[in-house]
Write a structure and sequence with these properties.
This protein is mostly helical. The protein has one domain (about 1-45). It has two helices and no strands. It is elongated and about 50 Å long.
Length: about 60
């Protein structure tokens, strides 16, 4: 359950940020933010994969 919960929550948060930006509720420059932090996102995904490896299927 946890493996499906985290990616779903991340997608919801990203969607809310983009929606808030499109509605003018925030003045975030999401392109610049993503362009700056994309390496950290890759590192976080890699660490997550190392800490929670998928079990081998028989």
């Amino acid at each position: 359950m946890k493996r499906k919960f985290v990616p779903a929550l991340v997608l919801i948060v990203i969607g809310v940020l983009f929606l808030a930006n499109n509605l003018g509720w925030t003045s975030l420059d999401l392109g610049q933010l993503l362009g700056t932090w994309w390496p950290a996102i890759l590192i976080a995904v890699g660490v997550g994969m190392l800490l929670n490896p998928k079990p081998d299927k028989p």
